[in-house]
Amino acid sequence: MNPPELRKFLVPELVFGAGARHLAGRYVKNFGSNKVLLVTDDGIRKTGMVDEVCADLIQTGISVEIFSEVMSNPRAENVMQGADRFRTAGCSALVAVGGGSVIDCAKGIGIVSSNNLPITEFEGVDRVIVPPPPLICIPTTAGSSADVSQFAIINDSGRNVKIAIISKTLVPDVALIDPETLLTLPSNLTIYTGLDVLTHAIEAYVSNASSPLTDLHALEAIRLVVKNLGPAVKSPRDLSYRSGMMLASLHAGLAFSNASLGAVHAMAHSLGGHLDLPHGECNALLLDTVIRYNYSSAPERYDDIGEAMGFPVKTAAPEKRCAVICDGIRTLRESLGVTATLGSLGVKREVIPVLAEHAMHDVCMATNPRNPKKEEIEALYESLL
Length: 385
Hints:
- Helix content is 49%, strand content 11%.
- By secondary structure, the protein is α/β, with parallel strands linked by helices.
């Protein structure tokens, strides 16, 4: 066995389990802050979770300013508005209660607050010079894993493109991962975010920056999604299935945060930025098509994924294994009701060159196992119209 390559592995302090969300006040106190900006959205506010967290914070002696103007696929304008609120309210820490959009927006608010520059200036890798203020995340979806990752995805509406910001300074200080927050998650979001978890894990496992450390988490995430996603949709109040999906999201986040992603996410970011489509749905529709394109560049890795998903890969002839995996993944998403085409979602053939151009410049494309040409990405999009 050859000596392993040097690999860095970043992870926040985390607490996993029912009731973890009630620890926010204790952690804010530990950071020496007496006023926080609580970042959330209107949907989460209606569940009562924000009121619970606010009560815990206030009981600990922490003042709270609420910023709930976060949109799905958060815009740069959201971030700048939140950063202005953070400064004018005199806050010194951030608490994010929500899914990936909320947590990414909170990360952006922290970047802008500490660096005093527009959020669009930080696109790319390791461009955040001054670390953001303390950030405590309470995820309410089992999908984005933004609560443990060094990624933030922000929609630059001026260019109609999602930008990826990657920096070790964006790993939250604390993640309070509470499966009870999923009990009110609608079925469509359960499905989209769950398939996002699967995509994170698959792309991390085949990434050209993967390592034995990330492989363990990626494969376990895949197994947990297969075991728990369908039952979580059918029995949304069953905490055991919700816990399984939250654990899957955690494992996938630890994997992709440290191994990065690939063409599925690069293409999905382009779709989401240009047409404001749901990220998890875009990933789900792209996944089997991109695997078919990538397979020859990492066949053994994809076979491992197929085995982890329970597909009869090793008993299939080598020339049929790719089809077994791709067909199995397509059957899984269709069984969950994800059957749209890109055309039915509003994608027009004439915008495909623009979508491909944006995807080619996405930082996630750098770790895809196969190095595509723009024309090949265009062909992949067209095949899904």
